[in-house]
Amino acid sequence: MATANMLSSLFPLFSLVCFISIFCLLSLSKKASISSSSPTYPHFHLVKPTMVTGNIEPNATSGSNPYTSSSSSCDYSDGSWIHDPDVRFDRYDSSCKEIFKGWNCILNKKSNGRDIVKWRWKPRNCHLPPFDPLKFLHTYRDTNIGFVGDSLNRNMFVSLFCALRRVAGDVKKWRPSGADRGFTFLHYNLTIAYHRTNLLARYGSWSANSNGGKLEDLGYKEGYRVDLGCRYSKIYAIFKAFWHWLCNLWWAPSKFDPIKSPMLFFERGLPLIPPIPPDVGFDKVLKHTIRFVEKTMRPSAIKLFCTRSPRHFEGGDWDQGGSCQRLQPSSPKEVEELFSLTKNGMNMEARLVNLHLYKSLKGSNFHILDITHMSEFRADAHPSTTGGKKHDDCMHWCLPGITDTWNDLFVTHLNSLKIRN
User: What is the DSSP string of 105-149?
Assistant: First the structure.
């Protein structure tokens, strides 16, 4: 009952979160050699994954990863941020041209822009090795890595690219039709690519038919139609095992008023009767997505879902004057005030979405990259007023910044899978 009440109070925001891309999907594959003199764009031949196992009941308070078992060598998501004023961040700098202008907090003169990288994530019971770009290029020679998702995935993708670009030689930039961008590091025949897709389900406005129907008989006059099982128009050459969603991002929570403009779920062209609430619809969308990906991608693919990247609006939501003016990481007490499910925290939707994600991934062959909890502390690491928006940007992250730590975690996890396989 408590969860139902929270979902009800969160309805406008949760409705939005349900259908923006909450994941970063990364695919690791081996490919044929590419000549540096005459590069060809790669085909994906993907390496073998391992099955996700373990207790699926997540901690409702912290939203922690339920896939981390006692037999695991390390829970990298459990730790704290340590300040090191003497640290030198030389992975890349603000001159990297792929950094989106609004995220370049050093060039935009954010007051703590240079201090953000002086905080190091320290897992409680083990060591998280820093990313070594040159070693990565050698280790993953003849490999393709694809990022699929929204602008937060691009945040992480750019961090990885800038680090590799600094130590690599010739780089070929290419842009398949309809995709966003890709880079091939020619000397190593390593390709990383970003494919932008914002939504997990196709939806649009719905109005009652004058001839009547099942929804009309129940008194519905208008709303938003959500189709389970997204259709896709084209699978691009670089992403032979990926998909393109025919959807658009709606950044307007008020459009999903449960009375005036409800979400109405359809399957195989027919409305689900009786209509289902948003949380049940979200679970169905996730299940359809996971089944589709597992059916579409080659069986040997390594697939990782990132958990939800947290927002840090305080004093109101993004369109209500909310801001993120902190200059240092938050304390554990402050984190709970912002994100606690039991206390109905201002930014609790990240943990709420993760609960649905963990449940939906049960029994799948996805791996989870848990970036939520470590990121909850970093209210100081957003562009805030320097992001070039009319409101504070408390969603994206400064570069250099916390997504560099996400890549530390990603590479460490990838290395462990490589050894295991």
Answer: TTTTT-TTTTTGGGEEEEESSS--PPP-HHHHHHHTTTEEEEEEE
